Amino acid sequence: MVLYTESLTKPTRSFDKGSYTVEKKRVPKSSSSATPNPPLYIVYPKEKGTYPVILFLHGFSIPNTSYSDLFEFIASHGYIIVAPGQTLFGLLTGLCVCSAVGDVDDAAETANWIDKNGGENLQLVLPQDVSPDLENVALAGHSKGGKAAFALALGHANTSLKFKALIGLDPVAGPNTSNRLEPKILNYIPHSFNIPIPIALIGTGLGDDGCCGCFPPAAPWGCNHPFFFNECKPPACYFVARDFGHMDMVDDWLVRLSGIFVCKTGKGSYDDMRRACGGIFVAFLKAYMFDDADDLSNMVDSPGSVAPIKLDPVLWLQS
Fold first, then answer.
1. What is the rounded CA–CA span in Å between residue 78 and residue 75?
2. Measured between alpha carbons, how far is 162 from 146 in angstroms, rounded to an integer?
3. 45, 151, 252, 253 — which has fewest CB within 10 A?
4. Average pLDDT, the chain
């Protein structure tokens, strides 16, 4: 059942840059147990405090640092983002065996690293007065990383870290319906995902369009966002950036490069696209981590008047 909320008079602030100053840090791969196998990119508020954590999984062959602008926007609202990168071995394995199993295993390893000894590992790479709140951790991912995030939430790798919410940013299950990446998670059965946490899906309207008639779609029909949403159980939110493409939320240099060689891009402002995606992250997590649903309700009730881009459809399934 689709529920629409009543209009609220409070302003929607999640699409505006937050009040925190943001710092970025790279944690390289190391043989030490103090760092996981995948290299890490961490973005966090500089001000003293304890902040929720988002474990974000990058798309296929996309550098984790190329989400920098999106991460900075989200972190400015008071979130620590931990984004594992990809080793050369992991990249080659993914290319050769056409699988996301390694991505899911790397995500689980990073999650366990975050959770070890009550967040001790993560605390060691953060400033002394900036702490992770492991009671409020979200799992998220883009493209192939979105599929890996769903697979991890479904238990395809073991992790001790407890997630409070899941966000899929234009997730992709594979190149086509008959060649879905392992582990295969789409069943094409409504509400079949056995995921006991709230889910948000952000899709793109141009993701299933090919590039210049030469390249296949980056987010092909049958393996893309509407099919993920179809299998979600309430509570779940669904937003589609109708006029934007699969890579339009990454940093500008990669949007332009991918628009030439990889996938179709939109003609609107990419900064607005990042603000829209970041604002949805913030509003959704405020609702399900901190019981403050004002911004999320406004987005669902009046997306055309509050969002920086066109969002259509916008759905909120509540239990």
1. 5
2. 18
3. 253
4. 91
Q: How do residues 160-186 score in pLDDT, each as one tens digit?
A: 999 999 999 999 999 999 889 999 999
Would residue 152 count as lying in a domain? yes
d(CA 198, CA 319): 10
Looking at the DSSP bridge assignments, the partners of residue 211 are 215
Question: What pLDDT sits at residue 2?
Answer: 40
Structural domain contains residue 311? yes
Instruction: Tell me the CA end-to-end span of the chain in Å, nearest whole number.
Output: 8
**How, if at all, do strands 22-27 and 40-45 pair?**
antiparallel
> Is 246 domain-assigned?
yes
Beta strands in the chain, from DSSP E residues, in sequence order: 22-27, 40-45, 49-57, 80-84, 130-142, 165-169, 199-204, 236-241, 311-317
Domain that residue 82 falls in: 22-317
Instruction: Please name the residue ranges forming H helices in 190-269.
Output: 225-230, 252-261
Token pair belonging to 170: 């234009």
CATH of the domain at 46: 3.40.50.1820
Count of domains observed in the chain? 1
- Tell me whether residue 154 is in a domain: yes
**Would you say how long the chain is, in residues?**
319
Which residues are catalytically annotated?
A: 143, 170, 246
